[in-house]
Amino acid sequence: MEINVVDPATFMSGFPSNSERLSALKEAKFVFPTWNVVKLGTRKEFKREHKKNGRKITAEAADLLTKPAFTVASEEARIELVKVRLWDMCFTSASLEEICDRAVELGLKPCPAEVGPQVWYQRLNSSDDNGLIIAMKAIVGSDGNPYVFVVESEYGQTLDVAYASPAGGWSLDDDLILCK
Q: N or C: the chain end with fewer CB closer than 10 Å?
């Protein structure tokens, strides 16, 4: 049975335990709707873009952009993104590794790191972009800690980071961005 998901939490609210919800989620073969499509490989110097059109970039995000682990696609490509919450993935708490592993189980993929800056650049001041956590392989910052990109829009389009604690700590209400 294939189910197009508009609100997985509503569908799964009838299942009392996380294990029952996860089983139903896997058996139902959810098709998560595309939230957005971004182009990869279109910008090489994101740090220069932050002064245009009210965009902001934190020092921590600028630091990640300089790391060898941050790469930009060599050719332009379109990538479909989905927006999910921990509840949608049958978690009450999860680490980044657990989120990425569950995404694969559900037919989704972690994002390339470039997705964070591309969402920041291509979706100027969209009202639903507050606190978008890019589910990606963490990049180690200059302080030695692992981070992922976050796109904020509360005070202007801002590219920021979130600490990717190995112990987890993401909220049930956090919006996570994954690739189809």
A: N
- What is the tens place of the pLDDT at every residue in 166-178? 887 777 778 899 9
Token reading at 18? 């996380």
8 Å CB contact between 94 and 170: yes
Global confidence as pTM: 0.83
End-to-end CA, the chain: 19
Domains of the chain by residue range: 35-179
Long-range CB contacts for residues 28-31, cutoff 8 Å, separation at least 24: 28/1, 28/2, 28/3, 29/1, 29/2, 29/3, 29/107, 30/2, 30/3, 30/4, 30/5, 30/106, 30/107, 31/2, 31/3, 31/4, 31/5
Closest CA to 137 of 74, 73, 70, 50: 70
With contact defined as beta carbons under 8 Å apart, do 176 and 86 qualify? Answer: yes
Give the model confidence (pLDDT) of 92-116 as tens digits: 778 899 999 989 988 899 999 999 9
Within 10 A of 55 (CB to CB), how many other CB atoms are there? Answer: 17
**8 A C-beta contact, residue 40 and residue 115:** yes
